[in-house]
Amino acid sequence: MYLLATHPDVQQKLQEEVDATFPNKAPPTYNALVQMEYLDMVLSESLRLFPIAGRLERFCKKDVEINGVFIPKGTVVMVPSLVIHQDPVHWSEPEEFRPESIIGSVQADNLRVPHP
C-alpha cells in the first residue's frame, strides 16, 4: 500500500487494470485475477524491494560441485535474496520501485519468476 501511495502513476495504472478486468465493480474471480499482468508486476516488484525473507536457506541433499566449488551433502546453502534483488547487475536502478522492470528480468517463457 505504501508503494502505491507514494507512486500515484503506478496506482493509476493498476486502478485502470482493475476497472478493465472487473467492470461495474464485478466480483473478482480467480481466472480474472491470474490474467492481471500489471497487478502481478506490482506485487513482484514490491516483493523484490521488500522480500518476506532476506535470505533463503536450502539443505544440500547430496554432494555436488557447482562452478568448481564442492558442496558436501548436509551443507546449508544460503542465498541472499535481498542482496540479489538490489544488485545493479540484474536490475537497472535497483532502489527504485518500477513494476515494469520485472519484465526485463524474467525469461520470456516463464513470466511468474521474479528472480534474475
UniProtKB/TrEMBL annotation:
GO cellular component: endoplasmic reticulum membrane
Cofactor(s) needed for function: heme
Enzyme Commission number: 1.14.14.1
Subcellular location: Endoplasmic reticulum membrane; Microsome membrane
Superkingdom per UniProt: Eukaryota
Pfam family, one: p450
GO term, biological process aspect, one: oxidative demethylation
SUPFAM superfamilies: Cytochrome P450
Annotated membrane topology: Peripheral membrane protein
Keywords in alphabetical order: Endoplasmic reticulum, Heme, Iron, Membrane, Metal-binding, Microsome, Monooxygenase, Oxidoreductase
Ranges in a coiled coil: none
Name assigned to this protein: unspecific monooxygenase
Organism of provenance: Molossus molossus (Pallas' mastiff bat)
